[in-house]
Design brief:
Strand content: 5-15%
Oligomer: single chain
Shape: elongated
Helix content: 25-40%
Length: about 375
C-alpha cells in the first residue's frame, strides 16, 4: 500500500497508509468512505463545484469526518485528468454513479487501471452494474422491497415498517462495499493486480437473509410477517408499550432467560407457555398488560442487572447517555456534534474521530502536496472556509 504522504492519518487505525479516492455522492458511498477513513485510510473526497448535495450544513455531515476534500469538475476539459492523477496515486477509488456514467466522464475502471493497475475500483449502486434494472433510479426502500427483506418487517395487519435507510444503504450497501474493497486490497497485496468491486444493495440486502432462507427451506420460517421467532411473532421477542407511552424490548429466547423474564415481570403463571404456541396470544396479552402498569424507567430498574434480556427502547438523543454505552465510549463528541465513535475496535491500531467533516475543497492544497500532484492545486476553484 501507499506509504508516502500520509501524515494526516499516520498511526491512526489499521488502514493507515491506504489512500482512498471517494467520488462525492449521497447515501452508501459516503458512509463507506467514512468507515474506511475511521479505520485510518487517507480518504480524499472529490467534490463537484457547488459542494455536497446533502441538504444540511456540511459541518454537520458526519459521514464526511476524517476525510479531506478537493473540488474537481469532471465535466471540464481537464477535470478527468485531475481525477486520474489522484487515481494513479491511490489504492482505492469508490464511486456511486449509475452504470456507464464514470466511463462517459472518462474516469471508469479501464481509464483508471491504465494509470494504476493495482487500483481497487469500488462501484456502489442499488441495482448493480448489470441486469434489467441496472440503469433505473432507485432508493433504499425499493431495493430492500425487491429482495424480500422489507416484507419481513412489521405487523401483519399494517404495511411493512421502513427501517430508515439502515438496512439497504448502509448494511446491504456500504458494509458490503467495504468488505469487498478490503478483500480486493488483500488480493492486490498477494498478486499486484487490482480489480473492480461491484457492490449492489440488492445483492447485500439479499445476502443478509441467508439464515432466514435456510430456515424457510427447512420449514422453520413462515413467509409472512410477525409469524416467526425473530420477527415479532413470538411474544417473548418483541417490543411492548409502557405506562408513559414509551417501550421496552424483550428478547428472552432461551429457557433460562425466559424463566427470569416471567419472574421479574410477574407473570409466572406463563412459565410453561414458552414452547406452546397455542398460548402465545394469551401470553402476549398478559405481558402487554403488565408492561402498561409501570413506566419505562420503572421497568428498566426492575430488569437492571438481570439476564432476562430486556432493555429500554431509547431515542437517538437518549442512547449516548445510557451508562453502558457511556462507559464504553460508544458515542463521542467532536466539534460540538455527538456521534457514534468508530467501530470496531483494535488492540494495536486504535481508531478515533480525528477531524470534523471536510468542507468541500478545503483540503485541495494539502492533498496536492501530500499526494505529489502539483497541478491539482493550480487554478484552484473556490474552497470551503
Amino acid at each position: 500500500m501507499t506509504t508516502a504522504g500520509t501524515a494526516a492519518t499516520a498511526g491512526h487505525g489499521p488502514l493507515a497508509g491506504v489512500r482512498v479516492v471517494e467520488l462525492a455522492g449521497i447515501g452508501p458511498g459516503p458512509f463507506a468512505g467514512m468507515l474506511l477513513a475511521d479505520l485510518g485510510a487517507d480518504v480524499v473526497r472529490v467534490d463537484r463545484p457547488g459542494g455536497s448535495s446533502l441538504a444540511i450544513d456540511p459541518d454537520h455531515d458526519v459521514t464526511n469526518r476524517n476525510k479531506r476534500s478537493v473540488i474537481v469538475d469532471l465535466k471540464s476539459p481537464d477535470g478527468p485528468a485531475r481525477l486520474l492523477d489522484l487515481a494513479a496515486r491511490a489504492d482505492v477509488l469508490i464511486e456511486g454513479y449509475r452504470p456507464g456514467v464514470a466511463e462517459r466522464l472518462g474516469v471508469g475502471p479501464e481509464a483508471c487501471h491504465a494509470r494504476n493497475p493495482r487500483l481497487v475500483y469500488g462501484r456502489m449502486t442499488g441495482w448493480g452494474q448489470d441486469g434489467p434494472l441496472a440503469h433505473r433510479a432507485g432508493h433504499d426502500v425499493a431495493y430492500i422491497a425487491l429482495t424480500g427483506t422489507l416484507g419481513m418487517i412489521g405487523a401483519p395487519d399494517t404495511p411493512p415498517a421502513v427501517p430508515a435507510n439502515l438496512l439497504g444503504d448502509y448494511a446491504g450497501g456500504s458494509l458490503y462495499l467495504v468488505v469487498g474493497v478490503l478483500a480486493a486490497l488483500h488480493h492486490v497485496r498477494v498478486t499486484g493486480i487490482g480489480q473492480v468491486v461491484d457492490a449492489a444493495i440488492v445483492d447485500g440486502a439479499a445476502h443478509l437473509t441467508a439464515m432466514i432462507h435456510g430456515m424457510l427451506a427447512a420449514g422453520g420460517w413462515q413467509d409472512r410477517r410477525a409469524a416467526n421467532l425473530l420477527d415479532g411473532g413470538c411474544p417473548y421477542y418483541g417490543t411492548y408499550e409502557t405506562a408513559d407511552g414509551k417501550y421496552m424490548a424483550v428478547g428472552a429466547l432461551e429457557p433460562q432467560f425466559y424463566d427470569e423474564f416471567v419472574r421479574l415481570l410477574g407473570v409466572e403463571d406463563f412459565a410453561d407457555a414458552r414452547k406452546d404456541p397455542t398460548r402465545w396470544g394469551e401470553l402476549r396479552e398478559a405481558v402487554a398488560a403488565r408492561f402498561t402498569s409501570r413506566t419505562r424507567d420503572e421497568w428498566t430498574a426492575v430488569f437492571e442487572g438481570s439476564d432476562a434480556c430486556v432493555a429500554p427502547v431509547l431515542s437517538l438523543r437518549e442512547a449516548p447517555h445510557h451508562p453502558h454505552l457511556a462507559a464504553r465510549g460508544t458515542f463521542t463528541d467532536h466539534g460540538g456534534i455527538t456521534q457514534p465513535a468508530p467501530a470496531p475496535r483494535f488492540s494495536a491500531t486504535p481508531t478515533a474521530v480525528r477531524s470534523a467533516p471536510a468542507r468541500p475543497g478545503a483540503g485541495t492544497a494539502d492533498v496536492a502536496r501530500d499526494w505529489d500532484i502539483p497541478r491539482l492545486a493550480t487554478d484552484l476553484p473556490h474552497q470551503g472556509d
